[in-house]
Amino acid sequence: MTAQVLRIVDKVAPGEFFPAVPQNFVLREDGQLPARDLAHRPDVGLYCLDLDQQLAYFVETTPGVDLTTAPFLYLAQYQHARRLFAVSYETLHRIADELPDPARLILVYSVGRCGSTAISHALGAVPGVRGWSEPDVFTQLAVLRHEDPTRDDEYARLLRSCVRLLGHGTATLAVKFRAGGIHLADLFQRVFPDSRGLFLYRHAERWLESMHEGFTPHLPGPEQQQTFLRYVTAQAPLLMPFALRHQRQPTPVEAYLLTWLSAMEACLRYGRDGVPLRPVRYEDLSTDPAATLAAILDHCGLPADGFDAAYGTLAADSQAGTLLSRASRRRAETPALRDEEYARTRAVLAEYPTIGAPDFVVPDFAVPA
Questions:
Q1: 51 and 12 belong to one structural domain
Q2: Do residues 91 and 26 both lie within one domain?
Q3: How far is CA 236 from CA 174, 182, 242, 258, 342, in A?
Q4: What is the DSSP letter of 79?
Q5: Number of domains in the chain
Q6: pTM > 0.70
Q7: Hey, CA dihedral for 41, 59, 200, 240, is it positive or negative?
Q8: Would you say residue 359 lies in a domain?
Q9: Measured over all CA atoms, what is the biggest interatomic distance in the chain, rounded to whole angstroms?
Q10: For residue 109, what are the β-bridge partners?
């Protein structure tokens, strides 16, 4: 088994939040190395999948950089990348087949902008836990599944191989996803039936304000729209039905809210189908962080003596150093949403009566009814 070594000539990702794709780099072939070595080097990790070429890419990062503390793994890998390595899916599986499953797997799903990065860091601070915040291989698996939902056996194998590689060398692995990760919750439950799932969410209008403030100033330009939209439509499958129903594209605030609704509806659907998801409201995390965190650790089967280490991370800005940091958002001075934009969001909510209200409370699917 060999891996293609790829020298980085230039880094050309169009923005911080752009998906992890090999096209984020200008690359030149630079020899080969034994593929098995990729699983055993501390400075090498799984970066992305090439959805069209069926290749997996690993990235070599600067020695000594602790990527587990990064707000977003895909971004830190890009920033610290030194070389890339490409292998076929089959080689990826052969590498992973030699590794065990993590003894404990914790899955952090969310609507985004609701404290999930903070919880990811808190879980990762518990002794014996390795936490990854937004490895993009799962974002790409969600895209594959959205585009062709008939190949779940193939996706399940990819999912297991990615988990084994990301969890190699630790007994407990905690993975926090981008918002589209919720669309894999049933597949994770199938492959890892003993995993523990959390679903973080937030009042729809407060979430919308946070999204508008954090993301609107940094949306990609027209030249990146094709790749960006491929990921957005997989994350928010309610976008296309809305466009067909109304015979127009949704406005930006409508598109944001349809993203929130897509994640919320997926959580409800999977929960009712037996996926044991524990909901966590941002409002509870904000008003009573100690009790909320203690309940999270208990649900995840983590020892109570890890509470102090986990709780100590909550005071920090979990997204420091990124465009979503508190300091960056203060500097951006994004114009406030207008009354008519709130009216549009309420009209969208009215089309989905199962949820219907911005303060909808998700049932606890981790506890038998």
A1: yes
A2: yes
A3: 24, 11, 11, 6, 19
A4: H
A5: 2
A6: yes
A7: negative
A8: no
A9: 59
A10: 199
